[in-house]
Amino acid sequence: MDRIADIWGPRTPHARGTVWPARVDRHLQEGVAEEDVERWVRSACVLCSNGCGCEIAVRDGRMVGVRGVATDVVNHGRLGPKGLYGSWDWANSPDRLTRPLVRENGRLVETDWDTAMARIAEVSRRLLDEKGPLSHGFYTTGQLFLEEYYTLAVIGKAGLGTPHMDGNTRLCTATSAAAFKESFGTDGQPGSYTDIEHCDAIFLFGHNMPETQTVLWARVLDRTRADDPPKVVCVDPRRTKVAEEAERTGGVHLAPRVGTNMALMNGLTRELFANGRVDTAWVERHTLGVDDLRATVEPYTPEETARICGVDAEDVRRAARIFGESERVLSTVLQGFYQSHQATAAAVAVHNLHLLRGMIGRPGAGVLQMNGQPTAQNTRECGADGDLPGFRNWSNPAHVRELAELWNVDEMTIPHWAPPTHAMQIFRYAEQGSIGLLWISATNPAVSMPESARVRRILGGEQCFVVVQDLFLTETARLADVVLPAAGWGEKSGCFTNVNRTVHLSEKAVEPPGEARSDLDIFLMYADAMDFRDRDGAPLIKWRTPEEAFDAWRECSRGRPCDYSGLSYDKLRGPTGIPWPCTDEHPEGVDRLYGDGVFNTDPELCETYGHDLLTGGTVTPTEYRAKGPAGRAFLKGAPYVPPHEEASEEYPLLFTTGRTVYHFHTRTKTGRSRNLNDAAPDVWVELSVPDARRLGIAEGDRVRVESPRGAMEARARVGQVMEGAVFAPFHYGHWDLDEVVPEDFSRQANELTMTIWDPVSKQPYFKTAACRVVRVADGDGPAPAPTTTASRPVDPSVPPTRGGPGASTVAEVVDGFVPSYPNDPALPSGDTGHIAEVSAPGRS
Amino acid sequence: MPHLATYVGLLHHSERSLAEALRTVGEGHAAEADVYHVCDTLAKMSEEHVRRLEPIVRRYGEQRHGDDVEEPERLYADGPGEIRKGPVGLLRDLQDLYVLATLVQTTWTAVGQAAQGVRDRELLELAQASETETGRQLSWLTTRLKAAAPQALIVAP
Ligand code: SF4
User: Fold this and answer.
1) Which coenzymes or cofactors are required (chain A) (predicted)?
2) Candidate from A360-364, A434-438, A806-810 with smallest mean pLDDT
3) At the topology level of CATH, where does B2-64+85-154 sit?
């Protein structure tokens, strides 16, 4: 079966409330038969936030394939195209980094580890002496393992004492975390994937799930293609596969104008109030702020919403009616909200809808604020981004004291005088030279950050010493002063946690190439070189192996919402991943949070005291305590305000960017998979039919897109985007081109995007920029965009996207096998380790 | 009520100064993208207060009978004329904004009290709504100041 052409694989439809059937997907390298595989090593896929349980095929010391794990709660054996084709073959690529590099006379030259690390330690020590710890910044990723993040967090926060640590998760998932904190008191996904099996409506807010999390979409399709499908509601400016499914199931496709999500959310919320769809008793008991919210949304009548958003007023009413009349609604949210104007406020508004209906914490009534990156959840939990480990509150002295005791350091060492510095600010400090050492691990900001030309200038400048640790010489690594070769997935062991809190252990299958080392070993090496000590003079980092690091983390998480204390490597070697909190009380983990209607808003428990959603101004501890939340969730609203850059005469169109199915991150791995790369080998630009006609642009023509900040060139796809909007995928850098592209010929979508971020989550906006499009030259064929996805062409003569040789895979439906998952709600309650699905008191 | 009229005038003037000052600081520190954009949001709040105050100012102005109610110049506060440069400059400019915003806030408090006394519902409602919004302006200024201070005072060149 060609899974490039058939992205989601064969259907296994099933009725509501029954277990999602198992189907095992497998792909082996061309010429390798199943019997040639020497070992299957347990892991989970690290190419999107779904985290599908899988096994790595090993032969002759190399990874040669992958297959899904039928008993895993996340995927029931399935894998998507990225997992099948992109998981492992990058590892055998001839251009892997195998030795450290240092910059000599402007050029990167090979060296040994001692030399490279000595150079870093020397700069680090000098900066510490001259300027102190605030001269150090760390920019990490959403792709390392939990053990590595935790180690990095301890080095940064207790060894150096710098608040300047963040992950590229800031670009993709920060809003999800921020929204949870604002509504529920702490980070932590309330819902579960098993809600898909129980819901009678699914709302996807700015979430192109068919392309970003393909296996999860297969799970949705297996419900919508059964006899009792849930209604799908799609909020997206493009006619995605979700929009098609909305049509099929009698739902709605709302395509709001780019930058107007908040107005739409206010319109939907107002409809619930106006039509008496609020569960007043539940709201009274379990929430705070309903009156303010009602007043805030009052002006957003369906007509006013329609006017602002460019949607149909009747569609707003219909969508709200579906939400209001369904018993069990599952909502999912992703980049269409997170990377867009008023991101946190809009994501919080989704929580509001659920809280107003008392639809949280029971089967089918859930919220999934998605992640873009696979291990983003761990960056957040472990404190390698702008948080303290274990969802601790930087402005709560008791929380800081706990960490100081755990690490045996002076409380004053741990920076907590202000919120930890977010990525965009870290880069600004690096630009100004007040951060003199910037250490980037496993991410590629030269391609992924907004206004890429500016980022290249910052990284390439003399004012800041840049360390990059990665698998390949990425666009970012080329600008570094020291490059460290890292081991990747399958070449090291460690745990990671997917969107819905499910923890997997990924075990080392093969040796890394050359002198490459695991990220954990690299961080430990730095800690040794710097000789970080605790208060008693003992080494600060007391672990050497991943398992020891995991055990240290377990202690750090104990008693916090993300409690890992019941987990161990041994336990994770069992049949399935396990969702936290996992404790003595819940040895098989917990499927969904807040079933009792008690939220983590107690002042001693919460992770933040909250913010003003419009400005990001913080609520003081005193103000927070005065509200007396006592476990109630917050209903928080905000008015719609127009986006920072609107269409004008000079730039009449709105530019929006996104991820597409065959790519992940900046294509460092997926671009090296022949099958994935061939399916979408180059960037493209999507235009609507009327805009293309007006501009005289035909399918495949070469166009130039310009914003006030920069330009890109690409071939045009005349496709499914709404009129007035222009879409480009944001993955394409220049590592796979023969020559470095000149700046005015860039194919990076982020040349155009603005340096601007959400005031609460500090997530940059990639979906609000004005642009103009000009035709540059005739095309010599269709755009290099896939036909299988939201980027399909209007022109029916474009040949369909197919996999090439070596794309064949197997998908075996496991007939008659009903898997038994400890947390599957289809099990009768009271079964082994099953968390009781208690209805909150007073809930209808 | 000559002094209430004076204070309404003071409000009108200082909200306008605050709006202007927010714009000046935002544009002057445009390289700090968040400062630029949030200052714009905050300036719009003050501009809206000014707009809603206008009919009230006219109303109180008419009651002043013109004789002895000269608005004393020294009541007025002016915004930062020129923008300071660099991280420490930003810190100082934020402090200036803060001082100006507290003047606005306490003036709203005073006017709100008087509005109760004279049972001026329109003014009272405006005073309450505006005071809340000035609180949001102050809270952002403090938040941003706290975030900027360590780097500016310890490490900035
Ligand atoms: S859905 Fe995500 S985690 Fe699962 S196989 Fe595909 S890329 Fe991997």
Assistant:
1) Mo-bis(molybdopterin guanine dinucleotide); [4Fe-4S] cluster
2) A806-810
3) Ferritin (1.20.1260)
